[in-house]
Amino acid sequence: MQRSDEKEPSTTEFSLDSVTDESSATSSNSATSNESRLAGLFSPKLFVVVFLASLLGAFLGGSIPIVGFIGRFLGLFAVGFGVGLLSGRSHYVEVGLGGALAFGLLWVLTTLTSGFAFAPFAVELLAKYGLAIAGAGAGVGLLTTIIGHYFGRDLRDGLTRDI
């Protein structure tokens, strides 16, 4: 005879869909319920990949001789576009946070190493306005990668839809 708090053994196989599905979450334990709802919202592995790809894309885009600064935006857009095109699910959170963090960091580093500002002036500028510079870079990175991800998902939808 089983105790009342034990569950009967299940004969169904484990699947990731059943873990992330809100309807299968038990209401007896709120921590387990919250974890199962958030499991499909954010992927730390994908975030790290998008962050590193955003750094690389912005660096490579910025190293193009004629377009330079605009190439950084194109590199970030390409990263968001690529994730949207290659992924079957939407990853707006990972793409947005990765692009925002990467571009905010790059704007701060660009302020320190830019050719028109020598070191003492750049350090003083960052001491006064560093948070605003990083915030502006993060906002631009967020918007650029989110827009790229949207267009990538839209193209994937158009390519995979039946005619």
TrEMBL record:
| Transmembrane domains' residue ranges | 46-64, 70-88, 100-123, 129-151
Q: Where is the composition biased (Low complexity)?
A: 22-32
Q: Where is the composition biased (Basic and acidic residues)?
A: 1-10
Q: What's the superkingdom here?
A: Archaea
Disordered: annotated segments: 1-32
Keywords in alphabetical order, please: Membrane, Transmembrane, Transmembrane helix
Determine if Membrane is one of this entry's keywords.
Answer: yes
User: What name goes with this protein?
Assistant: DUF5518 domain-containing protein
